[in-house]
Amino acid sequence: MNKTPIIIETEYLQRVRKKSFILLTLLMPVIIAATIFIPIWLGSFNSNEQKDIAVIDSTYQYAQALKDNEQYHFITVPAILPEMKTDSSNFEAVVQIRGDLVKGTGSVAVYSRKEVPQSLTSYIDDKLNAKVYHERLAETGIPQIAEVVKNAEKEITLKTYKWSDNGKEGSSDSAAAMAIGLITMLLIYMFVMMYGAMVMNSVTQEKTNRIVEVIISSVKPFQLMMGKIIAIFLVGMTQMVIWGILLVLILMIAGAVFGISSDPNMLAQQSMMAQQGMTAAGGLDADTLSMIHSFMNLPYTEIFICFLLFFLGGYLLFASFFAATGASVSNADDAGQFVFPVTLIMVFGLYAASASINNPDGPLAFWTSIIPITSPIVMMVRLPFGVPMWQVILSIVLLFATAIGMVWVSGKIYRTGILMYGKKPSLKEMIRWAKK
Fold it and tell me: pTM (2 decimals)?
């Protein structure tokens, strides 16, 4: 009688009922969203209190260029006074301008009891450089030279578009494709390693506690191994589905707070309004809205389906290896020598994926996205940039063929190794077990 369903149910329920699983599942999307949106939210608040900045200009030519803004109020003073150097001073900082900045013989220094804020130095730098720039142009004596130079310095605006299968154009941004590729790549790596290690730890723990001897008396070793692999896969899928739902809800709420519409047509209108200088989407600029619009135009259906398939294939490939490793050793420490090569392979996959971002159709990207041991990671980076369907199908077929073969080999090693104690097996012995 096949008792794999019973093992799956037992393992699954045992894990999803743990407090650690429930807390991690519920808190992780909140933490991810918080790291993204809290800095944006806090950055939208500006202090209403202006800070006084003393300006000393020995030339009387440049102080007027430092106009007050929402953060700083500039006050011209004749010299640096002793009280300005104390903590009780009313001035946040002191700006001292010496010499002729236009002729290049002058200098600007900012003094403060604390670290000078980057916003202050940037503002002073921009305003004084603009003043010096116009003064130098005026000294040339050429009529309307400022307007001529301004027109000459205007940069062209480059926009990228992508044609769909029906010939319709949509906004495109390589940064958006790169971001989605990196996110899905890291998710595959994290989930495969995390859940694969979970399989190994479960097997090792049962073997160390001698519980497996009782279980094997009523269940075939291969059924036990497959039950654990499938159960932990379902645990992972449950966690990912919940994370997906929570993230969508959080993004919808965040979109409502920041005024970002999920409708592509509305996003295009908001982007156009921002480019024209109008207020749109909670004050987000045109570049940000354009990137959001590009995110909306990515082939999410294809990416999601491929993500599930590559996650499943990669998980089966590596989890079966981890299960065989856990069954072959007597404790978790001994498993390190077998897990290390697999970890190196996964790290190489990350390196190949990172190197493939700038050349998703190059030889490195192509071959590492076809070879099963690296394809689950590298192919996810290539997908947002567009991959021929035959390459995707070939990669999936090779991955699952290799995974099934690995499950079969691991099942043989698991069958023999699960009841062996006292010594650490060599690679030669494990190969012999696989041939039985």
Answer: 0.66
